Amino acid sequence: MGQELGSTAMHADARQTDFCMYLSAILLIGLLLNASLGWWADLAAAIVMVPVIAKEGMQAIKGDTCGD
Hints:
Layout: H1 2-5, H2 8-37, H3 41-62
């Protein structure tokens, strides 16, 4: 949608929404596995999320835009 409108702000917002959805899905799966099977899946989910969050953080620090 952001590309169709030529809006970088809309494109960035859509990308951020996707990013949050992926992190939420990882967390939900981890919590469900932890609750149903007693595994430490919530800890594993957190460990899986760390590199994803770190990558996004490094891109933000560098000032990379969504189009990069």
